[in-house]
Amino acid sequence: MKSICATLLFADGVNIQVEANEGELLIDAAKRNGLTLFSDCSMGKCGTCVAKLVSGEVALGEYDPAVLPDDERSSGAILSCIAHMKTDCIVEYPYDASDASVEVGSPVAATVIGCGPVADEIWRLDVEVEQPLSFIPGQYVRIRTAPEGPWRSYSMANAPGENRLSFYVRLVLGGEFSTWLKEKAQAGDAIELEGPRGCFFLRTEDRPRVFVAGGSGLAPFLSMLRHLYANGDKQKTTLIVGARTGRHLFAREEIAAMAAANPNLRVAYAVESNPVDGARVGYPTDLLPELGLSEAERVYVCGPPPMVEAVKKSLSGIGLDKAAALYERFN
């Protein structure tokens, strides 16, 4: 019998991968892997187990249409108790992982292999793990520099399945992690990672994409682009990068190389002051109206909260469907 994988995403950002057999009920596979998903009737009659199918394919058994109306079904809603898995899939739940009686995996040991400034207020941190880290492009891990120390969350900038992980960190004056990175971190230092986590990730779908990044919020998009580039993706993709000044931009050479090799990738920069070649003075929201967006595009937005809110308002102003955009606030 064919083995498949279901990635379950929870509201607190935790995601758990469970192994299943082709045709197995999602709720049964979850139970075998130690998760107790919300459920009641187990016959598609109550709606307690409703979830959202983000990608992949399931076959639903009989259910009450009043519990799962056609418009919700067409938007991806499923009932876990009557969902037979046909392919690898990603399913999102509206409650925390702790509510499903699941424990997050143990922290993973990592070793610092390099760090240093790449732009004003932005440092890059490279670490190595023993086993390649499996994640969906756009997700993050939590990092701590000492046992029992505080955790900090950062998105991977590398493609999935690599031993070497890259992070871009915005330095915060007086911040504990920033101080460690700038003043103490050295090659060979041992740190811990926990994850991956997060529902902000690259969807597998046949539609154009628009990536809008602010500051170090570019990191998850670099992971997405590296993954797409490595897999020969041909879908039309637009990357808009915003920053305070031209000196705050990073990874421009790599992005330019990917754009030169892929005619379907378009890149635009907007900076508030001190522009560099190829960057306009302004904000990402100044560029959005020029794209002629429609419901055909999937828009991903990641950056500081004020930028995310400004982009959200701009997209609403040009009539883009809320369901077509994904947002991640990234301080």
Describe this structure in words.
The protein has 331 residues and is an alpha/beta fold. It has 7 helices and 19 strands. The chain has helices spanning 26-32, 70-74, 176-184, 219-230, 252-261, 284-287, 305-317, and strands at residues 3-9, 15-21, 50-55, 58-60, 77-79, 83-85, 89-92, 108-119, 122-133, 140-144, 152-155, 162-170, 190-197, 209-214, 237-245, 265-273, 279-281, 298-303, 325-329. Strands 11-10-13-8-9-12 form a 6-stranded antiparallel beta sheet. A 6-stranded parallel beta sheet has the order 17-16-15-14-18-19, sandwiched between helices. It has a 5-stranded mixed beta sheet with strand order 2-1-7-3-5. It is globular, with a radius of gyration of 21 Å. The model has no long low-confidence stretch (mean pLDDT 92).
Unreliable residue runs: none
**Strand content of the residues, in percent?**
35-45%
Gap from first CA to last CA: 46 Å
Molecular shape: globular
**Secondary structure category:** alpha/beta
**Proportion in helices:** 10-25%
Mean of all residue-level pLDDT scores: 92
Total number of helices: 7
Structure summary, number of beta strands: 19
**Mind describing the biggest β-sheet?**
6 strands, antiparallel
Sheet with most strands: strand arrangement: 11-10-13-8-9-12
Radius of gyration (Å) = 21 Å
> What order do the helices and strands follow?
EEHEEHEEEEEEEEHEEHEHEEHEHE
In short:
This protein is of the alpha/beta class and 331 residues long. It has helices at residues 26-32, 70-74, 176-184, 219-230, 252-261, 284-287, 305-317; strands spanning 3-9, 15-21, 50-55, 58-60, 77-79, 83-85, 89-92, 108-119, 122-133, 140-144, 152-155, 162-170, 190-197, 209-214, 237-245, 265-273, 279-281, 298-303, 325-329.
